[in-house]
Amino acid sequence: MLIAPSLLSCDFSKFGAEISRMDKAGADYMHLDVMDGHFVPNITFGAPVIKYVRSFTEKPFDVHLMISEPFKYIDDFCDAGADIITFHIESDSDPIKTIEKIKARGVKAGIVIKPKTDAEAVFPYLDKLDMVLVMTVEPGFGGQSFMADMLPKVKALKEEIKRRNLNVLIEADGGISESNIAQCIDAGVDVAVAGTAVFKAENPAEAIANLKK
Ligand code: DX5
Ligand code: ZN
After folding, report:
1. CA-CA distances (angstroms) from residue 105 to 17, 76, 109, 193?
2. With a 6 A CB cut-off, is 175 part of the ligand 1 pocket?
């Protein structure tokens, strides 16, 4: 299991230092939540900010776009140093064109599904993807409760990926903690995003190590 701390819960007055802190604590990826106040009812940060903090770690930047028209902004996030870009299938950009644009830049591409979207919605794109992100909360805010009823979608995706012999990682995002990570692993999650569970812990290194156990 890989752990991707969500920087949404960090102290933004020292964004770079927070990334270094997560690097030292054993994070596998840095999960960066980009929100536009339109696709989701919250606003965070964009590509210029990501570019400023890129030099604080060599770990992969996993950029989760919760924005309308993601296609328009792919180049900006690639230029900023994204290693993985995930965009919502519920957004208004053409999935194939968006995947191709990301991959043409040598960046890994993923599709995200909100709680109300079925796993089958991404099946037609699976052979072109590096990752599928299953939301285990409604996107927009950190600190919400984990929706265990999303796990059957993870299982269905895992089975389909295996059946077609593909190399696609499954990421889960929202409300993940020590109390539910075992269920995530059993369902087939490869990468767990954790905001609150890591940032509100007294010792983030211990929190990450415990999640991995
Ligand atoms: C929610 C974000 C998540 C969130 C995770 O829209 O995509 O990455 O910040 O935070 P926790 O772990 O607190 O749910
Ligand atoms: Zn996220």
Report:
1. 28, 11, 10, 24
2. yes
User: What confidence tier does 69 reach under pLDDT thresholds 50, 70, 90?
Assistant: very high
The alpha carbon of 65 and the centre of ligand 2 are apart by a number of angstroms equal to 8
Structural domain spans, the chain: 2-212
Dist. CA 213–CA 207, nearest whole Å: 10
Label the pairing between strands 191-194 and 169-173.
parallel
123-152 residues labelled b (16+ CB within 10 A) or e (exposed): eebeebbbbbbbbbbebbebeeebbeebbe
**How many angstroms separate the alpha carbon of residue 130 from the centre of ligand 2?**
16
Does ligand 1 lie within 6 Å of residue 62's CB atom?
no
3-state secondary structure of 110: strand
Is 85 within 8 Å of 102 (Cβ atoms)? yes
| Tens digit of each residue's pLDDT (9 = 90 or more) over 99-124 | 999 999 999 999 999 999 999 999 99
Q: Which CATH superfamily is domain 2-212 in?
A: Aldolase class I (3.20.20.70)
**Which of 18, 112, 173 for mutating ligand 1's site (highest number of atoms within 8 Å of CB)?**
173
pTM recorded for the entire structure:
0.98
